Amino acid sequence: MRYRPLGASGTAVSVVSLRLSGERCGGSGQAWLAAVHAAFENGVNSFELRSPTPALLAGFAEAAKALERRLIFVNLRPDPGSTADEIHRQVDETLAATDLGHFDLVTLDVDAETHTEAVWALEDLRASPKVRLMGVAGEGESVVPHVAGGVFDVLVAPFNILSGWRERIRVRTAVERSMAVIASGHFPDSARDVVVPRQERRGWFSKPAPLFSGIGTYAFLNRTPGWTAEEICLAFALTEPSLASVMLEVNDLEHLAALAEVTERELPSAVAAQIEMARFSAERREGAERRSA
After folding, report:
1. H or E element that contains 118
2. What is the pLDDT, as a whole number, of residue 194?
3. Given the DSSP bridges, would you call strands 12-14 and 16-21 parallel, antiparallel or unpaired?
4. Do 186 and 247 contact (CB within 8 A), yes or no?
5. What ranges do the domains of the chain cover?
6. Of the residues 12, 23, 33, 169, which has the maximum number of CB atoms within 10 A of its CB?
7. Distance between CA 108 and CA 220 in Å, rounded?
8. pLDDT beyond 80 at 112
9. 95: Cβ contacts below 8 Å, ≥ 6 apart
């Protein structure tokens, strides 16, 4: 596992983080204990707690005893739309259930309806011993003023093979404002079931020319020997030096181990070129469709 600095916080985090979500999967305290231990064994030291259940908190608390508190980075993600009072309550209750002492990060989901009081609540918590850093998460234009405002320490935002210039500029802007960036959505839905197109170019004597098969598309995601589509997507995200970590959300321990191994592998140079060609082709098609509409 590799580690990167989390902005100017003085903290180093594993290049992949693990989201533990009570919304997505259930499980007993022992199951969550095993999941966190497996993460430790694969070098993961960064975790996000999202809508945690009592079983999740019990398992995480027990697992956390295996390491010194300073070696674990824990991010609490309050429920979207939480009021200031609800954010304070969730922080207090989760700290009491886990005995962590403090959260390294609390991340606020923002949209057009986000109230200023919620941001003020996070600032109050950051000024207390309970929370070290405050983060903001969101997609599209709703997160832009929060990145530009200089209040938050961390940006949690989607970044993947489909990310265009807007997403890239947002990451660069955050870094310029001394914010650390944690990427989410490394494996977009549109990359999970790629349809391999028919070969449109043919070589001499009417034989297929494999060199041209699927060029300018994401067909290569399922054609690269020794790599799965998700592994390619994760490896690509890890090539972005501005990212401190990439958020994973997996339920299977073997799956977690396989993705953790990707952090030690280099993305084949030919694949990197194919990603850029496919992204450029997609952007060009979208532009043509907008002009013809």
Report:
1. helix 116-126
2. 55
3. unpaired
4. yes
5. 3-189+237-265
6. 33
7. 36
8. no
9. 101, 102, 103, 130
Q: Is 211 exposed, middle or buried (0-12, 13-18, 19+ CB in 10 A)?
A: exposed
pLDDT in tens, 156-183: 999 999 888 889 999 999 999 999 999 9
Residue 44 three-state SS = coil
**Looking at the domain 3-189+237-265, which fold is it?**
TIM Barrel (3.20.20)
For 102, the token pair is 């403090």
Helix (H, G, I), strand (E, B) or coil at 140: helix
Whole-number Cα distances in Å, 201 to 145, 170, 206, 213, 279: 47, 38, 9, 7, 20
Interval 25-84: pLDDT, tens: 567 889 999 999 999 999 999 999 999 999 999 999 999 999 999 999 999 999 988 999
Residue given tokens 């799965």 in the structure block: 228
* pTM assigned to the model: 0.86
Cβ contact 50:110 at 8 Å: no
Q: How far apart are CA 10 and CA 100, in angstroms?
A: 19
DSSP code of residue 199: P
Pairwise CA distance, residues 114 & 111, whole Å: 5
Question: Quick one: residue 257, left, alpha or beta (phi over 0 = left, psi -120 to 50 = alpha)?
Answer: alpha
Chain-centre distance of CA 107, in angstroms? 13
3-class state of residue 18 by DSSP:
strand
Q: What pLDDT was estimated at residue 8?
A: 84
Q: Coil, strand, or helix at residue 105?
A: strand
Q: Give me 219's structure tokens.
A: 């067909």
